[in-house]
Amino acid sequence: MPRYPHVLFDLDGTLIDSAPAILASYRAAFAAAGREAVVPIDAGIVGPPLLETLQMLAGTTDAGVIEALAAHFKASYDTRGYRETAAYDGVGEMLARLVEAGCTLSIATNKRLHPTRLILAHLGWADHFDAVYALDLFEPRLPHKAAMIARLMQDRGIAREQAVYVGDRSEDGESADANGLPFLAATWGYGSLGAHELAPHWRAVATPAALADAILAPSAT
Question: Could you confirm whether 10 is annotated as catalytic?
Fold first, then answer.
């Protein structure tokens, strides 16, 4: 049996390089709204949820401003932008290898559910995942990624000793910790964690192939 029969994945920066498409849609949103971002629209902003990021970029929590920017972003990203998303080299092969080995794969992402499903279908990966969870999958919206992972595991009856979370940011590792899950840090993505940012119990993996090796290593029990 694989060491981790259930594998939960972050999406942006872990499986896909979505930064160019996301950044282009943020820029389009601000241009359409006739506003200037107060911080640079660069790869460092990719990862947090849409509304949180828009508040940071706009320098305000004004609901009218944020709702207008969100509508412009969605108009760009959900129609054209998502198609510019690319898989990191080796990720498609890694996913297929895990599925072939009998692992159950899930997505737990800060990205909205609609574009997440569009991207998975666009890349031909929709059939790889038994569950796709996003913060906006439920009403009211889930508060953060740790709660999303907890809900996914509860709904799917996943035992924490049989699961692992894979991501590229410290938030991902902290969310895994909150649920008692081991964390594998994908260091190939734009949010990749440096050695000084890794908690001692987190494990860094440098390539998708190495990630598959770590997941499929025989259980010690």
Answer: yes
**175 and 199 Cβ atoms separated by less than 8 Å:** no
What's the mean pLDDT when you consider all of the chain? 94
Element (H, E) at 134: strand 129-134
User: For the segment 184-199, what is each residue's pLDDT rounded down to a tens digit?
Assistant: 999 997 766 777 789 9
Mention every residue, 6+ apart, whose C-beta is less than 8 A from residue 83: 21, 122
Share of the chain above pLDDT 70, in %: 98
Reported pTM: 0.91
- Among candidate residues 10, 12, 168, 172, the one labeled active-site is 10
**Overall residue count recorded for the chain in this entry:** 221
Could you state, in order of their start, the residue ranges of all structural domains in the chain? Answer: 6-17+86-216, 19-83
CATH of span 19-83 = 1.10.150
pLDDT for the residue numbered 193:
75
